[in-house]
Amino acid sequence: MIFFPDPKTFLLIGTFAIQWHTISFIAACVAGFLYISKMMQEHGYNQHVSDQIFGLALLGGIVGGRIGWVLTNLKEYSLYGWYAFYITDGGFEEVTALLMIGLLVYYYCRQHRMSFFRTMDVLSIAMMLVSMITRTGRAIAEPRLWLVILIEIIAIQFIYYVFHPYKEGEKRGDIYALTLLWIGVFQLIANVFKLDSHAANTLFLSVLAEAGGILLYIRNRKYKAPKPLIFFDFDGTIMDSEGMVINCFMHMFEKYGDPADFTHEKQLEVFGPPLEEEMAKLFPDRDSKVMVQEYRLYQNTLPEKHIVELLPNTEVVLRELKKRGYKIGIVTSRLTDSCVMWLKEFGIYDLFDVVLGRDQFIRPKPAPDGLVKACEKLGHGHDSMIYVGDNASDIRAAKNAGAFAVSYMSNKEKYKRIMAEKPNYIINELGELLPILDADHAWTYEKI
Asked: Which of 243, 294, 336, 399 could be bridged to 357 by S-S, CB 3.0 to 4.6 A?
């Protein structure tokens, strides 16, 4: 066993060699996997989807990159054809790798109702990161590559911090286009100034990358984002149920506790979390499931008392949204049957394309399960979605699903808690939602 027998080799065991390039490639894959997982999670996708996207990117990068490398060095490989499969030599072409990744991911996104360009914006930065880290393995034997790596670090930082955050006028696919433009220019520079021996014979692919980047950028400027799905919380967003909820909880305190204990602060806290969770918190010495049943039995006696009503302009706005062709739904912590009962009571049930209560998804808000399932019910992906809610947990759920988060400030006392979650927009009455929809961007939390 010999460590560092030559500048290219990390370890030599007999005739078996572990090269620095292999180690750097593994490290690059780990970094790429972590980055993709982080960004896909921010977009509302679970780890299973991230794993599949990473697997496709890895396969596309290796196969596409190797095909491009062999084609650009066809003369050498024509002499020893079997050597084309010897991928540990570090021969990969970035342009064809990115194109092959794009083909595989396009098919996957079509099958899973995901935004192709949103996903490729993530993978483009990941590929640049993988390429840069992989190149460090060759830089040990070729010191001039450290300059190339420094340039790549600057480029990645520039794209991530300047173009990744949302700014007015940016579109999905812009980072993908910019990456193609950067690779084309970078390879030309590396070729002309002999910075990287692997950049030789890449003139055609450099021009192809430039043309692809320019065409994609032009396409993005002409593309208009589709209408988003619009989902609403129910209590405090559609129905003014604050008085009813407090009335029901006060009834429980009168029967099983001391009404004086149901302070104003506690009254604010009962809005948003699941009912059983609140019962366990407020009445820890009693069976929360039994308490929830009694709460609901009492609440079912209230419709005839007319203590609830729709919030201002609700029906007008909902009908206008339907007139404009939007699909709308409700995702709420209230049980579905209760929600449907009230919607029918107000005569607006038929306006909604989907109604999902707490009983129809596994994890309650702020988990994104309800929003994701609502999208599935409508046969849409969740890459273009608005969620309107009046609690901090609603905004957090929207962010966890990657949705555009609109806070309906129906109760000013919730302002600090809601602002801590950083909603995309704040409205004071539902009619203010309509002019927001005139903007031309993708409807997700980070807007791209």
From this structure: 336
CA atoms within 13 A on the CB side of 257: 18
Residue 387 φ/ψ, nearest 5 degrees = -125, 125
pLDDT, greater one: 92 or 95: 95
φ/ψ bin of 86: left (φ > 0), alpha (ψ from -120 to 50), beta (otherwise): beta
Cα 137 to Cα 234: distance, rounded to the nearest angstrom? 56
- Asked if pLDDT for residue 76 goes beyond 70, the answer is no
C-alpha–C-alpha distance, residues 198 and 72, integer Å: 10
Q: What is the pLDDT of residues 205-239, one digit of tens each?
A: 888 889 999 999 999 988 888 899 999 999 889 98
Secondary structure (DSSP) of 283-299:
-TTS-HHHHHHHHHHHH
Dihedral (CA of 10, 187, 97, 63) sign: negative
* Separation CA 448–CA 445 (nearest Å): 8
Q: Is 317 helix (H, G, I), strand (E, B) or coil?
A: helix
Distance, C-alpha 366 to centroid of its chain:
15
Cα–Cα nearest to 125, from 150, 157, 148, 100 = 157
Query: Beta strand 2-6 with 9-13: parallel, antiparallel or unpaired?
Result: antiparallel
pLDDT (average), residues 413-438: 92
Residues 360-381 as b or e (16 or more Cβ within 10 Å = b): bbeebbbbbbbbbbbbeeeebb
Phi, psi of 18 (to 5 degrees): -105, 115
Widest pairwise Cα distance in the chain: 90
Question: Rounded to whole angstroms, how far apart are CA atoms 382 and 368?
Answer: 10
What does the pLDDT average to over 35-44?
Answer: 94
Measure the CA–CA gap between 107 and 60, rounded to whole angstroms: 12
Q: What is the pLDDT of residue 306?
A: 59
Contacts of 435 (CB under 8 A, 6+ apart): none
The amino acid that residue 381 corresponds to is: G
CA dihedral sign, ordered 279, 244, 331, 122: negative
> What is the Cα–Cα distance from 9 to 18, expressed in whole angstroms?
6
Write the burial class of residue 255 (CB in 10 Å: 0-12 exposed, 13-18 middle, 19+ buried). Answer: exposed
* HSE toward the beta carbon, residue 282, CA cutoff 13 A: 30
Which amino acid makes up residue 254? E
Active-site positions?
233
Tokens for 307, please give them.
């203590």
pLDDT in tens, 390-410: 989 999 999 999 999 999 997
The rounded distance, in Å, linking the Cα atoms of 203 and 208 is 9
**Cα angle 253, 257, 258; round to 5:** 85
Taking CA atoms, 18 is separated from 15, 25, 147, 302, in Å, by 10, 12, 25, 74
